[in-house]
Amino acid sequence: MSMPFYVSPEQMMKDRADFARKGIARGRSVVALQYADGVLFVSENPSQALHKVSEIYDRIAFAAVGRYNEFENLRIAGVRLADMRGYAYDRRDVTGRGLANAYAQTLGTIFSSGGEKPYEVEIFVAEIGDTAADDQLYRLTYDGQVADEHGFAVMGGAADVVAGHLKEHYTAGASLDDAIRVAVAALGHSESDDRVIPTGDLEVAVLDRTRTQPRKFLRLRETRLVEVLGRRGVEEPDAASPEDALAGSGPRHSGQDDPADPTDQVSGATPPLEDPVSGEPPVAPPVAPPVAPPDSPAAPPTGPGQV
Amino acid sequence: MTDSRLPASFMTPGTSSFADFLGIEAPDLLPSRRAVPAGNAADLAPHGTTIVAATFDDGVVMAGDRRATMGNIIAQRDIQKVFPADEYSVVGIAGTAGLAVEMVRLFQTELEHYEKIEGSTLSMDGKANRLAALIRANLGMAMQGLAVVPLFAGYDLAADQGRIFSYDVTGGRYEETAFHSVGSGSLFARGSLKKLYRDDFNAEEAVTAVIQALYDAADDDSATGGPDITRRIFPVVHVITPDGGRRMPDDEVSVIADRILASRMQRPDGPAAALT
Protein backbone atom coordinates (compact mmCIF):
# COMPACT_ATOMS: atom_id res chain seq x y z
CA MET A 1 0.00 0.00 0.00
CA SER A 2 1.08 3.57 -0.55
CA MET A 3 1.74 5.83 2.35
CA PRO A 4 1.08 9.60 2.27
CA PHE A 5 3.94 11.92 2.98
CA TYR A 6 3.90 13.37 6.43
CA VAL A 7 3.17 17.11 6.37
CA SER A 8 3.37 18.90 9.67
CA PRO A 9 0.25 20.89 10.63
CA GLU A 10 2.31 24.08 10.72
CA GLN A 11 3.50 23.48 7.19
CA MET A 12 0.01 22.67 5.95
CA MET A 13 -1.48 25.84 7.43
CA LYS A 14 1.35 27.92 6.05
CA ASP A 15 0.80 26.46 2.59
CA ARG A 16 -2.90 27.16 2.74
CA ALA A 17 -2.43 30.68 4.09
CA ASP A 18 0.14 31.41 1.43
CA PHE A 19 -2.22 30.16 -1.26
CA ALA A 20 -5.09 32.33 0.00
CA ARG A 21 -2.91 35.43 0.42
CA LYS A 22 -1.65 35.15 -3.13
CA GLY A 23 -5.16 34.98 -4.50
CA ILE A 24 -6.21 38.06 -2.52
CA ALA A 25 -3.18 40.14 -3.43
CA ARG A 26 -3.83 39.64 -7.14
CA GLY A 27 -6.97 41.84 -7.08
CA ARG A 28 -7.41 45.57 -6.61
CA SER A 29 -7.79 47.18 -3.22
CA VAL A 30 -10.96 48.16 -1.36
CA VAL A 31 -10.86 51.03 1.13
CA ALA A 32 -13.31 51.41 4.02
CA LEU A 33 -13.24 54.74 5.80
CA GLN A 34 -15.21 56.15 8.72
CA TYR A 35 -16.44 59.69 8.15
CA ALA A 36 -18.71 62.03 10.11
CA ASP A 37 -22.04 60.49 9.03
CA GLY A 38 -21.12 56.83 8.58
CA VAL A 39 -18.81 54.55 6.66
CA LEU A 40 -17.54 55.01 3.11
CA PHE A 41 -16.39 52.23 0.78
CA VAL A 42 -14.30 52.96 -2.30
CA SER A 43 -12.88 50.51 -4.78
CA GLU A 44 -11.50 50.61 -8.28
CA ASN A 45 -13.79 48.25 -10.14
CA PRO A 46 -14.27 48.70 -13.89
CA SER A 47 -17.18 46.24 -13.85
CA GLN A 48 -20.57 47.88 -13.38
CA ALA A 49 -22.34 44.62 -12.66
CA LEU A 50 -20.00 42.65 -10.41
CA HIS A 51 -20.04 44.63 -7.20
CA LYS A 52 -17.43 44.44 -4.48
CA VAL A 53 -19.49 46.52 -2.06
CA SER A 54 -23.09 45.57 -1.24
CA GLU A 55 -25.96 46.11 1.12
CA ILE A 56 -26.70 43.41 3.70
CA TYR A 57 -29.30 45.05 5.92
CA ASP A 58 -30.59 48.40 7.15
CA ARG A 59 -27.33 49.49 8.76
CA ILE A 60 -24.95 46.79 7.60
CA ALA A 61 -22.81 46.67 4.49
CA PHE A 62 -20.37 44.18 3.04
CA ALA A 63 -17.21 44.64 0.99
CA ALA A 64 -14.89 41.97 -0.28
CA VAL A 65 -11.80 41.31 -2.36
CA GLY A 66 -10.51 38.10 -3.84
CA ARG A 67 -12.30 35.44 -5.80
CA TYR A 68 -15.69 36.74 -6.95
CA ASN A 69 -17.67 33.49 -6.83
CA GLU A 70 -16.51 32.84 -3.28
CA PHE A 71 -17.31 36.23 -1.80
CA GLU A 72 -20.58 36.43 -3.74
CA ASN A 73 -21.54 33.18 -2.03
CA LEU A 74 -20.71 34.70 1.34
CA ARG A 75 -22.63 37.87 0.50
CA ILE A 76 -25.78 35.93 -0.36
CA ALA A 77 -25.42 33.86 2.81
CA GLY A 78 -25.17 37.12 4.77
CA VAL A 79 -28.30 38.59 3.16
CA ARG A 80 -30.19 35.38 3.92
CA LEU A 81 -28.98 35.29 7.51
CA ALA A 82 -29.81 38.94 8.13
CA ASP A 83 -33.24 38.78 6.48
CA MET A 84 -34.14 35.61 8.34
CA ARG A 85 -33.09 37.06 11.68
CA GLY A 86 -34.93 40.31 10.99
CA TYR A 87 -38.04 38.38 10.00
CA ALA A 88 -37.96 36.00 12.97
CA TYR A 89 -37.19 38.71 15.54
CA ASP A 90 -37.11 42.38 14.60
CA ARG A 91 -35.16 44.61 12.25
CA ARG A 92 -33.23 46.08 15.18
CA ASP A 93 -32.01 42.63 16.22
CA VAL A 94 -29.85 42.18 13.15
CA THR A 95 -26.30 43.15 14.13
CA GLY A 96 -23.02 43.40 12.32
CA ARG A 97 -21.30 41.50 15.10
CA GLY A 98 -23.59 38.49 14.65
CA LEU A 99 -22.93 38.51 10.95
CA ALA A 100 -19.16 38.88 11.39
CA ASN A 101 -19.18 35.91 13.77
CA ALA A 102 -21.09 33.73 11.31
CA TYR A 103 -18.62 34.64 8.56
CA ALA A 104 -15.66 34.01 10.86
CA GLN A 105 -16.93 30.55 11.79
CA THR A 106 -17.57 29.69 8.16
CA LEU A 107 -14.22 30.91 6.87
CA GLY A 108 -12.35 29.34 9.77
CA THR A 109 -13.98 25.95 9.29
CA ILE A 110 -13.27 25.93 5.57
CA PHE A 111 -9.68 27.04 6.12
CA SER A 112 -8.85 24.36 8.63
CA SER A 113 -10.71 21.48 6.97
CA GLY A 114 -8.14 19.55 4.99
CA GLY A 115 -10.43 18.46 2.19
CA GLU A 116 -11.36 21.92 0.91
CA LYS A 117 -9.58 24.70 -0.85
CA PRO A 118 -9.40 27.72 1.47
CA TYR A 119 -11.44 30.73 0.39
CA GLU A 120 -9.30 33.37 -1.30
CA VAL A 121 -11.26 36.29 0.13
CA GLU A 122 -11.01 39.07 2.62
CA ILE A 123 -14.12 40.81 3.87
CA PHE A 124 -15.23 44.00 5.57
CA VAL A 125 -18.46 44.03 7.53
CA ALA A 126 -19.49 47.53 8.58
CA GLU A 127 -22.37 48.61 10.77
CA ILE A 128 -23.34 52.17 11.60
CA GLY A 129 -24.87 53.27 14.88
CA ASP A 130 -26.63 56.45 15.92
CA THR A 131 -23.36 58.32 16.39
CA ALA A 132 -19.91 57.99 14.85
CA ALA A 133 -18.65 56.45 18.09
CA ASP A 134 -21.07 53.54 17.64
CA ASP A 135 -19.88 52.67 14.12
CA GLN A 136 -18.26 49.27 13.75
CA LEU A 137 -15.89 48.05 11.08
CA TYR A 138 -14.78 44.41 11.09
CA ARG A 139 -12.15 42.87 8.89
CA LEU A 140 -12.36 39.13 8.28
CA THR A 141 -9.50 37.24 6.73
CA TYR A 142 -9.45 33.98 4.74
CA ASP A 143 -8.70 31.94 7.89
CA GLY A 144 -11.65 33.29 9.88
CA GLN A 145 -9.82 35.83 12.00
CA VAL A 146 -11.81 38.92 12.95
CA ALA A 147 -10.22 42.29 13.57
CA ASP A 148 -12.00 45.40 14.79
CA GLU A 149 -10.78 48.31 12.65
CA HIS A 150 -10.90 51.99 13.54
CA GLY A 151 -10.76 54.98 11.23
CA PHE A 152 -9.84 53.31 7.96
CA ALA A 153 -8.86 49.90 6.60
CA VAL A 154 -7.60 48.57 3.30
CA MET A 155 -7.63 45.07 1.90
CA GLY A 156 -6.58 43.39 -1.33
CA GLY A 157 -3.99 44.40 -3.91
CA ALA A 158 -1.14 46.53 -2.60
CA ALA A 159 -2.99 47.11 0.65
CA ASP A 160 0.02 48.30 2.63
CA VAL A 161 0.93 51.01 0.10
CA VAL A 162 -2.66 52.34 0.06
CA ALA A 163 -2.86 52.15 3.85
CA GLY A 164 0.41 54.06 4.15
CA HIS A 165 -1.00 56.89 2.04
CA LEU A 166 -4.22 56.92 4.07
CA LYS A 167 -2.32 57.01 7.33
CA GLU A 168 -0.71 60.28 6.27
CA HIS A 169 -3.85 61.94 4.93
CA TYR A 170 -6.80 60.52 6.89
CA THR A 171 -8.58 62.79 9.36
CA ALA A 172 -11.28 61.51 11.67
CA GLY A 173 -14.76 63.04 11.40
CA ALA A 174 -14.25 64.33 7.85
CA SER A 175 -17.16 65.24 5.58
CA LEU A 176 -18.24 62.74 2.92
CA ASP A 177 -16.71 64.77 0.08
CA ASP A 178 -13.35 65.02 1.82
CA ALA A 179 -13.42 61.33 2.69
CA ILE A 180 -14.08 60.39 -0.95
CA ARG A 181 -11.21 62.56 -2.16
CA VAL A 182 -8.77 61.05 0.36
CA ALA A 183 -9.83 57.48 -0.41
CA VAL A 184 -9.64 57.92 -4.20
CA ALA A 185 -6.23 59.54 -3.96
CA ALA A 186 -5.02 56.67 -1.77
CA LEU A 187 -6.26 54.05 -4.24
CA GLY A 188 -4.41 55.79 -7.07
CA HIS A 189 -1.22 55.94 -5.04
CA SER A 190 1.53 53.45 -5.68
CA GLU A 191 5.19 53.31 -4.74
CA SER A 192 6.31 54.68 -8.09
CA ASP A 193 3.73 57.38 -8.87
CA ASP A 194 0.21 58.70 -8.33
CA ARG A 195 -2.46 57.85 -10.86
CA VAL A 196 -5.81 59.57 -11.52
CA ILE A 197 -8.43 56.79 -11.47
CA PRO A 198 -11.24 57.41 -14.01
CA THR A 199 -14.51 58.20 -12.18
CA GLY A 200 -16.26 55.56 -14.32
CA ASP A 201 -14.04 52.88 -12.81
CA LEU A 202 -14.84 53.75 -9.20
CA GLU A 203 -17.30 51.82 -7.11
CA VAL A 204 -18.36 54.04 -4.21
CA ALA A 205 -21.01 53.31 -1.60
CA VAL A 206 -21.85 54.63 1.85
CA LEU A 207 -23.74 53.71 4.95
CA ASP A 208 -25.16 57.14 5.72
CA ARG A 209 -26.95 57.59 9.03
CA THR A 210 -28.50 60.90 7.86
CA ARG A 211 -30.71 59.08 5.32
CA THR A 212 -34.35 59.21 6.37
CA GLN A 213 -35.14 55.71 5.07
CA PRO A 214 -34.46 52.75 7.37
CA ARG A 215 -32.11 51.33 4.75
CA LYS A 216 -28.97 53.44 5.07
CA PHE A 217 -26.95 51.91 2.23
CA LEU A 218 -26.48 54.06 -0.86
CA ARG A 219 -24.39 53.73 -4.01
CA LEU A 220 -22.94 57.01 -5.26
CA ARG A 221 -23.42 57.45 -9.00
CA GLU A 222 -20.77 58.70 -11.37
CA THR A 223 -22.37 62.16 -11.76
CA ARG A 224 -22.09 62.69 -8.02
CA LEU A 225 -18.46 61.53 -8.03
CA VAL A 226 -17.59 63.93 -10.84
CA GLU A 227 -19.04 66.77 -8.73
CA VAL A 228 -17.06 65.77 -5.67
CA LEU A 229 -13.75 65.00 -7.32
CA GLY A 230 -13.73 67.90 -9.79
CA ARG A 231 -10.87 68.25 -12.23
CA ARG A 232 -7.98 66.04 -11.26
CA GLY A 233 -5.84 65.90 -14.40
CA VAL A 234 -5.56 63.20 -17.01
CA GLU A 235 -7.40 60.00 -16.10
CA GLU A 236 -5.42 56.80 -16.35
CA PRO A 237 -7.24 53.49 -16.25
CA ASP A 238 -5.46 50.77 -14.35
CA ALA A 239 -3.48 48.25 -16.33
CA ALA A 240 -5.22 44.94 -16.91
CA SER A 241 -5.37 43.00 -13.71
CA PRO A 242 -5.60 39.25 -13.21
CA GLU A 243 -8.95 39.78 -11.47
CA ASP A 244 -10.50 41.14 -14.69
CA ALA A 245 -10.04 37.76 -16.32
CA LEU A 246 -10.78 35.82 -13.20
CA ALA A 247 -13.85 37.59 -11.89
CA GLY A 248 -16.56 35.04 -11.48
CA SER A 249 -14.59 32.31 -13.14
CA GLY A 250 -13.24 29.11 -11.72
CA PRO A 251 -9.67 27.98 -12.03
CA ARG A 252 -8.30 28.52 -15.49
CA HIS A 253 -7.67 25.56 -17.74
CA SER A 254 -5.16 27.23 -19.92
CA GLY A 255 -3.03 24.20 -20.56
CA GLN A 256 -0.06 26.24 -19.46
CA ASP A 257 1.52 26.40 -16.06
CA ASP A 258 1.43 29.99 -14.91
CA PRO A 259 3.63 30.57 -11.87
CA ALA A 260 1.60 33.67 -10.92
CA ASP A 261 -1.60 31.64 -10.71
CA PRO A 262 -1.54 29.11 -7.89
CA THR A 263 -4.96 27.79 -8.91
CA ASP A 264 -4.13 26.66 -12.38
CA GLN A 265 -4.67 23.00 -12.96
CA VAL A 266 -1.41 22.32 -14.71
CA SER A 267 1.77 21.29 -13.02
CA GLY A 268 4.29 21.82 -15.77
CA ALA A 269 7.93 22.60 -15.77
CA THR A 270 7.58 25.68 -13.56
CA PRO A 271 7.03 25.03 -9.89
CA PRO A 272 3.76 26.72 -8.86
CA LEU A 273 4.74 27.96 -5.40
CA GLU A 274 7.90 28.82 -3.63
CA ASP A 275 8.53 27.49 -0.18
CA PRO A 276 6.25 29.54 2.08
CA VAL A 277 8.78 29.62 4.93
CA SER A 278 12.07 30.28 3.26
CA GLY A 279 10.90 31.72 -0.06
CA GLU A 280 13.04 29.12 -1.81
CA PRO A 281 11.70 27.30 -4.87
CA PRO A 282 10.33 23.94 -3.85
CA VAL A 283 12.55 20.93 -4.01
CA ALA A 284 11.37 17.94 -5.96
CA PRO A 285 9.93 15.22 -3.72
CA PRO A 286 12.39 12.54 -2.71
CA VAL A 287 12.62 9.83 -5.26
CA ALA A 288 12.88 6.97 -2.82
CA PRO A 289 9.60 6.08 -1.11
CA PRO A 290 9.61 6.87 2.59
CA VAL A 291 10.37 3.97 4.82
CA ALA A 292 7.50 2.90 7.02
CA PRO A 293 8.14 1.95 10.62
CA PRO A 294 8.61 -1.80 10.55
CA ASP A 295 5.98 -2.72 13.13
CA SER A 296 3.03 -0.49 12.25
CA PRO A 297 2.63 -0.48 8.49
CA ALA A 298 -1.08 0.41 8.58
CA ALA A 299 -0.88 3.49 10.79
CA PRO A 300 0.63 6.50 9.06
CA PRO A 301 1.03 9.25 11.68
CA THR A 302 -1.01 11.85 9.79
CA GLY A 303 -4.58 11.51 11.01
CA PRO A 304 -6.04 14.60 12.69
CA GLY A 305 -6.92 12.59 15.77
CA GLN A 306 -3.34 11.52 16.39
CA VAL A 307 -1.33 13.13 19.11
CA MET B 1 -17.41 16.03 13.03
CA THR B 2 -18.66 19.33 14.38
CA ASP B 3 -18.97 21.93 11.69
CA SER B 4 -19.67 25.45 12.85
CA ARG B 5 -20.01 27.04 9.44
CA LEU B 6 -23.28 28.39 8.06
CA PRO B 7 -25.56 25.56 6.89
CA ALA B 8 -25.24 24.55 3.25
CA SER B 9 -28.64 26.02 2.37
CA PHE B 10 -27.26 29.51 3.08
CA MET B 11 -24.44 29.05 0.58
CA THR B 12 -26.43 27.32 -2.15
CA PRO B 13 -26.98 29.56 -5.16
CA GLY B 14 -30.24 29.41 -7.05
CA THR B 15 -33.21 30.98 -5.36
CA SER B 16 -33.63 34.72 -4.85
CA SER B 17 -36.87 34.20 -2.98
CA PHE B 18 -36.90 34.64 0.77
CA ALA B 19 -40.04 32.52 1.17
CA ASP B 20 -38.42 29.64 -0.75
CA PHE B 21 -35.32 29.92 1.40
CA LEU B 22 -37.39 29.92 4.60
CA GLY B 23 -39.18 26.82 3.34
CA ILE B 24 -35.83 25.00 3.28
CA GLU B 25 -34.11 26.46 6.30
CA ALA B 26 -36.89 27.32 8.76
CA PRO B 27 -40.26 26.12 7.44
CA ASP B 28 -41.95 26.74 10.80
CA LEU B 29 -41.52 30.47 10.22
CA LEU B 30 -43.76 30.36 7.16
CA PRO B 31 -47.41 31.13 7.95
CA SER B 32 -48.59 28.54 5.42
CA ARG B 33 -46.69 25.62 6.98
CA ARG B 34 -48.65 25.56 10.22
CA ALA B 35 -51.21 22.85 10.76
CA VAL B 36 -54.50 24.19 12.07
CA PRO B 37 -56.88 21.72 13.74
CA ALA B 38 -60.06 21.04 11.81
CA GLY B 39 -63.04 23.28 12.46
CA ASN B 40 -63.94 26.87 11.88
CA ALA B 41 -61.48 29.29 13.46
CA ALA B 42 -63.01 32.44 12.02
CA ASP B 43 -64.22 33.84 15.34
CA LEU B 44 -60.92 33.37 17.20
CA ALA B 45 -59.09 36.46 16.09
CA PRO B 46 -59.75 40.06 15.03
CA HIS B 47 -60.66 40.87 11.44
CA GLY B 48 -59.53 43.82 9.43
CA THR B 49 -62.13 45.40 7.25
CA THR B 50 -62.12 47.93 4.41
CA ILE B 51 -59.30 48.94 2.05
CA VAL B 52 -59.74 51.33 -0.88
CA ALA B 53 -57.33 52.22 -3.69
CA ALA B 54 -57.60 54.59 -6.64
CA THR B 55 -55.25 55.70 -9.39
CA PHE B 56 -54.74 59.33 -10.36
CA ASP B 57 -52.90 61.06 -13.18
CA ASP B 58 -49.49 60.71 -11.54
CA GLY B 59 -49.71 57.67 -9.29
CA VAL B 60 -51.96 55.72 -7.01
CA VAL B 61 -53.38 56.10 -3.48
CA MET B 62 -54.49 53.47 -0.99
CA ALA B 63 -56.37 54.04 2.23
CA GLY B 64 -57.64 51.79 4.99
CA ASP B 65 -59.96 52.39 7.91
CA ARG B 66 -58.63 51.78 11.43
CA ARG B 67 -61.09 49.27 12.84
CA ALA B 68 -60.56 45.59 13.70
CA THR B 69 -63.56 43.58 14.83
CA MET B 70 -64.16 40.28 16.62
CA GLY B 71 -67.76 39.37 16.11
CA ASN B 72 -69.74 42.28 17.50
CA ILE B 73 -66.77 43.64 19.47
CA ILE B 74 -64.46 46.37 18.22
CA ALA B 75 -61.10 44.69 18.84
CA GLN B 76 -58.94 47.69 17.98
CA ARG B 77 -59.67 51.29 17.04
CA ASP B 78 -56.35 52.26 15.51
CA ILE B 79 -55.07 49.19 13.71
CA GLN B 80 -52.87 49.79 10.67
CA LYS B 81 -53.94 47.82 7.62
CA VAL B 82 -52.07 49.57 4.80
CA PHE B 83 -48.30 48.99 4.65
CA PRO B 84 -45.55 49.97 2.24
CA ALA B 85 -44.34 46.82 0.43
CA ASP B 86 -41.27 48.55 -0.99
CA GLU B 87 -40.39 51.98 -2.29
CA TYR B 88 -42.94 51.96 -5.11
CA SER B 89 -45.71 49.72 -3.89
CA VAL B 90 -48.14 49.35 -1.05
CA VAL B 91 -50.28 46.51 0.24
CA GLY B 92 -53.53 46.73 2.20
CA ILE B 93 -55.11 43.77 3.94
CA ALA B 94 -58.57 42.60 4.85
CA GLY B 95 -59.35 39.39 6.71
CA THR B 96 -57.75 37.71 9.72
CA ALA B 97 -55.55 40.46 11.10
CA GLY B 98 -52.81 38.36 12.70
CA LEU B 99 -52.16 36.25 9.61
CA ALA B 100 -52.47 39.26 7.35
CA VAL B 101 -49.85 41.29 9.21
CA GLU B 102 -47.49 38.30 9.18
CA MET B 103 -48.05 37.87 5.46
CA VAL B 104 -47.28 41.54 4.85
CA ARG B 105 -44.01 41.18 6.78
CA LEU B 106 -43.12 38.16 4.69
CA PHE B 107 -43.99 39.99 1.48
CA GLN B 108 -41.95 43.06 2.46
CA THR B 109 -38.94 40.87 3.26
CA GLU B 110 -39.46 38.94 0.03
CA LEU B 111 -39.23 42.10 -2.10
CA GLU B 112 -36.26 43.53 -0.21
CA HIS B 113 -34.47 40.17 -0.29
CA TYR B 114 -34.84 39.88 -4.05
CA GLU B 115 -33.62 43.44 -4.49
CA LYS B 116 -30.48 42.85 -2.42
CA ILE B 117 -29.59 39.49 -3.94
CA GLU B 118 -30.28 40.37 -7.57
CA GLY B 119 -29.26 44.01 -7.42
CA SER B 120 -32.48 45.07 -9.17
CA THR B 121 -36.12 45.36 -8.18
CA LEU B 122 -38.87 42.99 -9.30
CA SER B 123 -41.22 44.20 -12.01
CA MET B 124 -44.67 45.30 -10.89
CA ASP B 125 -46.18 42.09 -12.28
CA GLY B 126 -43.45 40.06 -10.59
CA LYS B 127 -44.34 41.59 -7.23
CA ALA B 128 -48.06 40.97 -7.80
CA ASN B 129 -47.37 37.34 -8.70
CA ARG B 130 -45.22 36.76 -5.62
CA LEU B 131 -48.04 38.06 -3.45
CA ALA B 132 -50.45 35.72 -5.25
CA ALA B 133 -48.18 32.78 -4.42
CA LEU B 134 -48.15 33.72 -0.73
CA ILE B 135 -51.95 33.99 -0.67
CA ARG B 136 -52.35 30.69 -2.50
CA ALA B 137 -50.20 28.94 0.11
CA ASN B 138 -52.71 30.08 2.73
CA LEU B 139 -55.69 28.38 1.07
CA GLY B 140 -55.96 25.63 3.69
CA MET B 141 -56.34 28.15 6.46
CA ALA B 142 -58.72 30.26 4.40
CA MET B 143 -61.01 27.22 4.18
CA GLN B 144 -61.07 27.12 7.97
CA GLY B 145 -62.18 30.71 8.17
CA LEU B 146 -58.74 32.37 8.42
CA ALA B 147 -58.77 34.09 5.05
CA VAL B 148 -56.46 36.93 4.07
CA VAL B 149 -57.45 39.08 1.10
CA PRO B 150 -54.97 41.78 0.14
CA LEU B 151 -55.18 44.72 -2.21
CA PHE B 152 -51.91 45.57 -3.90
CA ALA B 153 -51.09 48.85 -5.62
CA GLY B 154 -47.98 50.57 -6.86
CA TYR B 155 -46.40 52.79 -9.44
CA ASP B 156 -45.08 50.81 -12.40
CA LEU B 157 -41.97 52.67 -13.54
CA ALA B 158 -41.80 50.63 -16.75
CA ALA B 159 -45.42 51.29 -17.76
CA ASP B 160 -45.30 54.80 -16.24
CA GLN B 161 -48.63 54.54 -14.42
CA GLY B 162 -50.22 53.54 -11.15
CA ARG B 163 -51.62 49.99 -11.07
CA ILE B 164 -53.97 48.10 -8.72
CA PHE B 165 -54.27 44.33 -8.20
CA SER B 166 -56.92 42.46 -6.28
CA TYR B 167 -56.82 38.83 -5.12
CA ASP B 168 -59.06 35.99 -4.07
CA VAL B 169 -58.22 33.38 -1.43
CA THR B 170 -57.05 30.86 -4.04
CA GLY B 171 -54.32 33.23 -5.17
CA GLY B 172 -56.23 34.52 -8.17
CA ARG B 173 -54.73 37.81 -9.26
CA TYR B 174 -56.83 40.39 -11.07
CA GLU B 175 -55.68 43.73 -12.34
CA GLU B 176 -58.20 46.50 -11.68
CA THR B 177 -58.61 49.70 -13.61
CA ALA B 178 -59.06 53.07 -11.93
CA PHE B 179 -60.16 51.99 -8.44
CA HIS B 180 -60.97 49.00 -6.27
CA SER B 181 -61.88 48.06 -2.73
CA VAL B 182 -61.72 44.91 -0.56
CA GLY B 183 -63.11 43.94 2.82
CA SER B 184 -66.49 43.92 4.52
CA GLY B 185 -67.36 47.50 3.59
CA SER B 186 -66.01 47.20 0.05
CA LEU B 187 -69.44 47.04 -1.62
CA PHE B 188 -70.38 50.43 -0.27
CA ALA B 189 -66.94 51.92 -0.86
CA ARG B 190 -66.91 50.72 -4.44
CA GLY B 191 -70.38 52.11 -5.08
CA SER B 192 -69.30 55.42 -3.64
CA LEU B 193 -66.11 55.57 -5.71
CA LYS B 194 -68.05 54.68 -8.83
CA LYS B 195 -69.90 57.96 -8.51
CA LEU B 196 -66.98 60.05 -7.27
CA TYR B 197 -64.07 58.85 -9.41
CA ARG B 198 -62.77 60.92 -12.31
CA ASP B 199 -59.80 60.21 -14.61
CA ASP B 200 -58.15 63.59 -14.08
CA PHE B 201 -57.75 63.49 -10.30
CA ASN B 202 -54.64 64.98 -8.79
CA ALA B 203 -53.19 63.41 -5.63
CA GLU B 204 -55.26 65.46 -3.19
CA GLU B 205 -58.52 64.84 -5.05
CA ALA B 206 -57.77 61.12 -5.15
CA VAL B 207 -57.13 61.10 -1.40
CA THR B 208 -60.38 62.99 -0.82
CA ALA B 209 -62.30 60.47 -2.96
CA VAL B 210 -60.95 57.42 -1.09
CA ILE B 211 -61.69 58.99 2.31
CA GLN B 212 -65.23 59.79 1.11
CA ALA B 213 -65.54 56.15 0.06
CA LEU B 214 -64.35 54.94 3.48
CA TYR B 215 -66.89 57.29 5.10
CA ASP B 216 -69.66 55.73 3.01
CA ALA B 217 -68.44 52.23 3.90
CA ALA B 218 -68.42 53.09 7.61
CA ASP B 219 -71.88 54.62 7.22
CA ASP B 220 -73.42 51.31 6.15
CA ASP B 221 -71.03 48.61 7.42
CA SER B 222 -70.73 48.17 11.19
CA ALA B 223 -67.28 46.59 10.88
CA THR B 224 -65.74 49.61 9.13
CA GLY B 225 -64.63 52.53 11.26
CA GLY B 226 -65.27 56.11 10.20
CA PRO B 227 -63.06 59.07 11.12
CA ASP B 228 -62.88 59.14 14.93
CA ILE B 229 -63.16 62.86 15.63
CA THR B 230 -62.97 62.64 19.40
CA ARG B 231 -59.78 60.56 19.44
CA ARG B 232 -58.46 62.12 16.21
CA ILE B 233 -57.94 58.73 14.55
CA PHE B 234 -58.02 59.00 10.76
CA PRO B 235 -57.55 56.50 7.91
CA VAL B 236 -54.02 55.41 6.98
CA VAL B 237 -53.33 56.87 3.52
CA HIS B 238 -50.37 56.01 1.29
CA VAL B 239 -49.62 58.01 -1.85
CA ILE B 240 -47.26 56.59 -4.49
CA THR B 241 -45.85 58.66 -7.33
CA PRO B 242 -42.84 58.20 -9.64
CA ASP B 243 -40.74 59.70 -6.80
CA GLY B 244 -41.66 56.83 -4.48
CA GLY B 245 -44.27 56.16 -1.86
CA ARG B 246 -45.01 57.91 1.41
CA ARG B 247 -47.55 57.65 4.16
CA MET B 248 -49.54 60.86 4.26
CA PRO B 249 -48.94 62.43 7.70
CA ASP B 250 -51.93 62.39 10.05
CA ASP B 251 -52.21 66.19 10.14
CA GLU B 252 -52.59 66.30 6.34
CA VAL B 253 -55.18 63.52 6.40
CA SER B 254 -57.06 65.23 9.23
CA VAL B 255 -57.41 68.45 7.20
CA ILE B 256 -59.09 66.52 4.36
CA ALA B 257 -61.18 64.43 6.78
CA ASP B 258 -62.37 67.53 8.62
CA ARG B 259 -63.41 69.10 5.31
CA ILE B 260 -65.39 65.98 4.42
CA LEU B 261 -67.03 65.92 7.87
CA ALA B 262 -68.02 69.58 7.52
CA SER B 263 -69.70 68.95 4.16
CA ARG B 264 -71.45 65.83 5.54
CA MET B 265 -72.91 68.04 8.26
CA GLN B 266 -74.78 69.78 5.42
CA ARG B 267 -75.48 66.68 3.37
CA PRO B 268 -74.99 63.42 5.35
CA ASP B 269 -75.04 61.21 2.21
CA GLY B 270 -72.06 63.02 0.73
CA PRO B 271 -71.64 64.84 -2.57
CA ALA B 272 -74.42 64.31 -5.11
CA ALA B 273 -73.46 63.06 -8.56
CA ALA B 274 -75.07 64.49 -11.68
CA LEU B 275 -78.05 62.47 -12.94
CA THR B 276 -76.96 62.31 -16.53
From TrEMBL, chain B:
<keyword id="KW-0963">Cytoplasm</keyword>
<keyword id="KW-0378">Hydrolase</keyword>
<dbReference type="Pfam" id="PF00227">
    <property type="entry name" value="Proteasome"/>
</dbReference>
<keyword id="KW-0645">Protease</keyword>
<dbReference type="InterPro" id="IPR000243">
    <property type="entry name" value="Pept_T1A_subB"/>
</dbReference>
<protein>
    <recommendedName>
        <fullName>proteasome endopeptidase complex</fullName>
        <ecNumber>3.4.25.1</ecNumber>
    </recommendedName>
</protein>
<dbReference type="GO" id="GO:0010498">
    <property type="term" value="P:proteasomal protein catabolic process"/>
</dbReference>
<dbReference type="InterPro" id="IPR022483">
    <property type="entry name" value="PSB_actinobac"/>
</dbReference>
<dbReference type="InterPro" id="IPR029055">
    <property type="entry name" value="Ntn_hydrolases_N"/>
</dbReference>
<dbReference type="GO" id="GO:0004298">
    <property type="term" value="F:threonine-type endopeptidase activity"/>
</dbReference>
<dbReference type="GO" id="GO:0019774">
    <property type="term" value="C:proteasome core complex, beta-subunit complex"/>
</dbReference>
<dbReference type="InterPro" id="IPR001353">
    <property type="entry name" value="Proteasome_sua/b"/>
</dbReference>
<dbReference type="GO" id="GO:0005737">
    <property type="term" value="C:cytoplasm"/>
</dbReference>
<keyword id="KW-0888">Threonine protease</keyword>
<keyword id="KW-0647">Proteasome</keyword>
<dbReference type="InterPro" id="IPR023333">
    <property type="entry name" value="Proteasome_suB-type"/>
</dbReference>
